[in-house]
Structures are given as structure tokens and as C-alpha cells.
């Protein structure tokens, strides 16, 4: 079980435009969440969205690394998480590859591997159908941007 | 609702500590007394009690009396809840990177 989150995407667009979409506050508000981001090392900012159970709707962030046109890294603290989000951009002949990584799950994942995959787990667990906080956030975001 | 949100935020802190993960490891095998758990670690009894308090507050263990002993039991349901949380973040970023693609396509059409 991987400890971190890794998601990759390809965009048939020049790297400068993808970089701008990552570092312009208005652009980020359109595809990610409303924010007060500034592409400056050490800048503290927030993403804001509608609250949901277990989440007050605010993600606290700080720019940790910024390599123009290549890499953007900021801390992402929301709900119970304390993580580091990194975007890496790579120019390709026909567009841009974006790699997103979210680190900081090591402690929780270590326990989950040990317990969820261990014996006796299924017997002890009550069946839970929990609402997905982020599915709802994503759905709301999608509904608003239509 | 309130309990669940408090539990989620405490669990990450609770399992961040290796001693607390080790305590959970012992309890996974069977319920254990406070005395047994304290004997497993080189740290002081108050320190182990403090770790148990954190785990209790996070809802990861429960406590009951067995005569004069206090017994601790693993409560794994909160871990499942956090596992769901963590998985949802993968979906979240996949959706957001799709939205970024749509955003870039929209901007291109306007150029």
C-alpha cells in the first residue's frame, strides 16, 4: 500500500499556461478552490469551501518551494490532515505532464496497513457507509462551476 | 456528528506516535490490562498512561474495569473512517486535475 498520494495528468497545453493555472489565484479558484494564494516562498494562504462534517471548510497552507515553471510545493492542513502537496511539471513535445504528490500520510497509513489488512479486522468492523466529505465538496464545486 | 469530527482529527495525532502504534499493536492481538501495557515499554508508567489517554480520546481504544484491573480494547472503527477519508483525497485530486484540464481547454478556446 502506497503511503503517499500520487496523481498524474497530461495536458495538451504549453507548460507556461499550466504553470499560470497553478500559480494564479483566480485560476486556482476556478479549478481548485477559492483562495488567497500568492506565488511567493513562505506565503501563508487558505483555500476555502463549504464546511462538511469533520471539516470546517478551510485548508491552511504555506508555500514551501517554488521553482518557476517546474515545481510548486505547499503545506496542506485541513480537517485532520497535516500534509505537503507538490506539483511537478514536465514539458513534453505535445504538452505538459503534471505530477501531483501529497505526502504526510505515513503514520496513518502504517497503522492502516497493519490493522485493516490484519486478521480479525473484518469481524470487528461494523459496516459503515460514511458520506464522503470530499466527494461532496467536489460535487458542490462541480455544480457551482457549471 | 460532533464526536465523529473530533475523532477524525485526533486519530492522525494519535497514530503519529510510534509508542501509541505499538500499544495498538498489542491490543490488536487481545485486550490488555494497563499493567501489561506499561510493562512492554521502557518509558514511565505515567507516560504510558498519557499515551492511553490520547488513544481513548481518539476513540481508538476503549477501557473497562475487570475487578481491580483496567482493561483496554482496540476499537478499529475509527481507523476505517480515516481510511475512507484518505482514499477520498485520491478521488478529490483526480477530480481537481480533471477540472484543471477543463479550465485550460476553456482558456485555449478563448485565445
What's the structural blueprint in terms of helices and strands?
The complex is a heterodimer of chains A (146) and B (111).
Chain A: E1 5-11, H1 15-23, H2 25-31, E2 44-48, E3 58-67, E4 71-78, E5 83-92, E6 95-103, H3 106-116, H4 121-124, H5 133-145
Helix pairs in contact in A: 1-2
Chain B: H1 2-16, H2 18-29, E1 32-33, H3 34-39, H4 45-57, E2 61-66, E3 69-74, H5 77-110
Antiparallel strand pairs in B: 1-3, 2-3
Helix pairs in contact in B: 1-4, 1-5
| Helix content class of chain A | 25-40%
Distance between the termini of chain B: 47 Å
Instruction: Please mark out the parts of chain A with pLDDT under 50 across 5 or more consecutive residues, or reply none.
Output: 119-134
Largest sheet of chain B: 3 strands, antiparallel
Helix content of chain B: over 70%
The coarse silhouette of chain A is: globular
**Secondary-structure class of chain A:** alpha+beta
Q: What is the helix tally of chain A?
A: 5
Q: Tell the overall outline of chain B.
A: rod-shaped
- Estimate what percentage of residues of chain B fall within beta strands: 5-15%
Overview in brief:
Chain A is of the alpha+beta class. Chain A has helices spanning 15-23, 25-31, 106-116, 121-124, 133-145, and strands at 5-11, 44-48, 58-67, 71-78, 83-92, 95-103. Chain A has a six-stranded antiparallel sheet, with helices on one face.
Describe what this molecule looks like in 3D.
- The complex is a heterodimer of chains A (146) and B (111).
- Chain A is 30% helix and 34% strand.
- About 11% of the residues of chain A have low confidence.
- The N and C termini of chain A lie far apart (36 Å).
- Chain A is an alpha+beta fold and 146 residues long.
- In chain A, helix 1 packs across helix 2.
- Chain A has a six-stranded antiparallel sheet with strand order 1-6-5-4-3-2, with helices on one face.
- The longest helix of chain A is centred in the C-terminal third of the chain and has 13 residues.
- Chain A contains five helices and six strands, in the order βααβββββααα.
- In chain A, 26% of the residues are buried.
- With 111 residues, chain B is α+β, with helices and mostly antiparallel strands.
- In chain B, 72% of the residues lie in helices and 13% in strands.
- Chain B is built from five helices and three strands.
- Chain B has a three-stranded antiparallel sheet.
- In chain B, helix 1 packs antiparallel against helix 4.
- Chain B is rod-shaped.
- The termini of chain B are far apart.
- The N terminus of chain B is likely disordered.
- Classes of the chains: A alpha+beta (146), B alpha+beta (111).
- At the A-B interface, strand 1, helix 1, helix 2, strand 6 and helix 3 of A face helix 1, helix 2 and helix 5 of B.
Amino acid at each position: 500500500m502506497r503511503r503517499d498520494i500520487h496523481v498524474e495528468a497530461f495536458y495538451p497545453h504549453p507548460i507556461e499556461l499550466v504553470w499560470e493555472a497553478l500559480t494564479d489565484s483566480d485560476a486556482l479558484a476556478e479549478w481548485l478552490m477559492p483562495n488567497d494564494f500568492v506565488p511567493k516562498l513562505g506565503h501563508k494562504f487558505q483555500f476555502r469551501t463549504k464546511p462538511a462534517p469533520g471539516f470546517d471548510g478551510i485548508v491552511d497552507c504555506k508555500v514551501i518551494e517554488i521553482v518557476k515553471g517546474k515545481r510548486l510545493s505547499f503545506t496542506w492542513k485541513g480537517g485532520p490532515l497535516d500534509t505537503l502537496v507538490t506539483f511537478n511539471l514536465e514539458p513534453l513535445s505535445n504538452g505538459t505532464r503534471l505530477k501531483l504528490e501529497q505526502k504526510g500520510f505515513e503514520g496513518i497509513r502504517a497503522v492502516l496497513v497493519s490493522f485493516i489488512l490484519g486478521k480479525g479486522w473484518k469481524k470487528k468492523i461494523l459496516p459503515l457507509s460514511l458520506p464522503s466529505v470530499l466527494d461532496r465538496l467536489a460535487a458542490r464545486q462541480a455544480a457551482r462551476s457549471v | 456528528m460532533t464526536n465523529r469530527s473530533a475523532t477524525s482529527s485526533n486519530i492522525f495525532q494519535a497514530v503519529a506516535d510510534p509508542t501509541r502504534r505499538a500499544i495498538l499493536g498489542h491490543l490488536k492481538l487481545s485486550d490488555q490490562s494497563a499493567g501489561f501495557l506499561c510493562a512492554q515499554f521502557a518509558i514511565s508508567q505515567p507516560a504510558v498512561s498519557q499515551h492511553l489517554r490520547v488513544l481513548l480520546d481518539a476513540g481508538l481504544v476503549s477501557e473497562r474495569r475487570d475487578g481491580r484491573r483496567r482493561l483496554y480494547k482496540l476499537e478499529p472503527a475509527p481507523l476505517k473512517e480515516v481510511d475512507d477519508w484518505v482514499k477520498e483525497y485520491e478521488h478529490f485530486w483526480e477530480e481537481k486535475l480533471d477540472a484543471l484540464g477543463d479550465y485550460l481547454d476553456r482558456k485555449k478556446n478563448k485565445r
